[in-house]
Every structure is written in C-alpha cells, then in structure tokens.
Amino acid sequence: MIRIISPKTPSILSMHFPQEMPKYLIYTKRDVNLLDLTSMKSFKADISRMADTETGEYAGEMITRTMRDLKLHEIYPKEKKVDALKIERLIVENKRQGYGSAFLRFAQAESEQQGCGGKVFLVASRIYDPKHPCHIFYKKQGYTSTDSYINHILDKCIKNHTKLNPEYADNLIMFRPIDETKQPQHQESRLLKFLKKLFNIVT
Are 64 and 88 in contact (CB under 8 A)? Predict the structure, then answer.
C-alpha cells in the first residue's frame, strides 16, 4: 500500500496494489489509422503491445479491429449479420512463453467489451513464420475453421506432435466458437421468464 498526503487537504489518500504483479501488462493504443495492403484502403484499428513484468522486456504485439454487420454465414449460420473482433496480426517475440495465449484471452475480453459477444476471428497464415505456421497454435487455443478436413489434419498434428504440411498452411479463416447458451438473446429470454413469474406473483 502506498500512502499519499494531499497538499491541499490534511487527509491521507491510500492506494492498495495487488500483492503480486501480473506476468503480462498490455497497453492498447486505440483508433490507429492503418492501410489494408489487399484493398489499399485505410482502416482504424487498435494496437496492443505486451510487456513481460518478470523480465521487463517487450513481449509482442496484436492488431485488432471491431467489424460491424459482417456476413459470416459460414461461421455463424444462425445470424444474418454479426459484429466480431478481427485479429489482423499477432506477433510474439518468443514462443512457448504464454504470450500468444494471453493475447487471445485479451482479444476475447475486447470482443465482449466492444459488444461483439466474444466473437473473434482471424486469417491464419504462414507469411510471418513459414517454417512454423500458426494454425496448430490457434487450434490448441480452441479456434477452428469451417473446413472439417483441415480441422482433422490439425488435430492429427497436435496428437502426433508433428508439423503442419505447408500445403495446408495457406490463408485459412479460423474463429472462436461461441457458446450459444451464453449469448445475450438467451440471457434476455431468461430475464423475461423471471419478470413474467414476478408479475404473476404480484398480481
């Protein structure tokens, strides 16, 4: 605890800090103008950078943007249009340190905060690391694709501890499946049921 004596008033302000510092600290810069190299159009995105508090070193960077009214029927077939958080880029300095999984947890929380209901998707590619495509990592973290055959290949690589054949490592849309029971519409229906019961009791 740190005690600060205010110069304007005789009172003492107290601030309590956690006993243990978290391993990762993430700083996000909002609404940064970036250029989409495919469409050559600019877009606004959030850039999140991570520091490892144990080593004091820079750990990596994730670029995300909130996308509204997307037609992703192949991913979310029950919805005509969806809001989702897209991970444009995820780069870590050192692998197998927990940085990537921490970024994905952060992305999920960001999706919830931005009103996207935890929907997160990305395009897995080998462009940044041709020798170690990121597809297997995302599959281990619970992400999947709409291609059942590719999912089978990824599961097989994970089970046998083998590398992914480069021919399967082209750009692949992967997404975080949503637990339908936790969606807002289901929560609202439960609320309506409760209000109906309450109304019946009162009347």
Answer: yes
How many angstroms separate the CA atoms of 78 and 74, rounded? 10
139 in Cβ contact with 155 (< 8 Å): yes
In whole angstroms, give the CA distance from residue 8 to residue 27.
32
Taking the chain (203 residues) in consecutive chunks of 10 residues, what is each chunk's mean pLDDT? 46 57 90 88 95 93 95 82 94 93 96 94 86 90 93 95 85 85 48 57 51
Take residue 119 and report the two structure tokens written for it: 């929907």
What are the distances in angstroms from CA 46 to CA 13, 141, 200? 34, 22, 48
What are the two backbone dihedrals, phi and then psi, of residue 9, each rounded to the nearest 5 degrees? -130, 155
Q: What share of the chain is helix, strand, coil (3-state, %, to 5)?
A: 30, 35, 35
Residue 31: which H helix or E strand, with range?
A: strand 24-36
Contact 3, 12 (CB under 8 A): yes
- Look at the block and give the residue holding tokens 């975080």: 176
Contact 116, 84 (CB under 8 A): yes
CATH topology of domain 2-119+178-202: Aminopeptidase (3.40.630)
pLDDT of 50: 96
Residues 87, 62: Cα–Cα separation, whole Å: 7
Query: DSSP 3-state assignment of 171?
Result: coil
Q: How far apart are CA 10 and CA 8, in angstroms?
A: 7
Q: Extract the tokens encoding 24.
A: 């990762």
